[in-house]
Amino acid sequence: MANSKVEIVFQSIYENVSMACDKFRQFCIENEISKNIYLKLEICLTEALNNVIKHSYLGQPGNEIKLIVQISNSMLELIIIETGLPRKKTGKPTLEFDPTDIDNLPEGGMGLFIIEEIMDETNYKSDGKTNTFTMFKQL
Predict the structure, then answer these.
(1) Which helix (H) or strand (E) holds 132?
(2) Element (H, E) at 114
(3) Spatial contact of 71 and 4, defined as CB atoms under 8 Å apart
(4) What is the pTM of this model?
(5) What is the rounded CA–CA span in Å between residue 80 and residue 132?
(6) Structural domains for the chain
(7) Which runs of consecutive H residues, i.e. helices, occur in 6-60?
(8) Dihedral of CA 123/50/57/105: which sign?
(9) pLDDT digits over 72-101, tens only?
């Protein structure tokens, strides 16, 4: 698998998440990543980008999000760079609920848990100005 990279820069509008995911999907197809893999990764990407808009930018449009997708040595990296509010919690998320109590399932907080379950590794860092969330998947 050859090294390949694409950068996608867009504004913090929920509708742009699907555009970024479309470009990610095209990148995966062009790089012959199996549909079974890239569909799972697209879930992670959607969750992560929606989290940036909702939590980092507080739903406000007009803020820049940069997505870098790259393959190197059979490792796919999804790098999201933004300048909103940093995450308050950076540890590995857990789900604490009774799965048999359907009426009281949590309405939120499952996105990061799903990402951690699907990806091989994640890394979040913030220097106070720029936040970077990187997701890794061995291909």
Answers:
(1) strand 131-138
(2) helix 111-118
(3) yes
(4) 0.87
(5) 6
(6) 4-138 (3.30.565.10)
(7) 14-30, 35-51
(8) negative
(9) 999 999 999 999 999 886 666 555 555 566
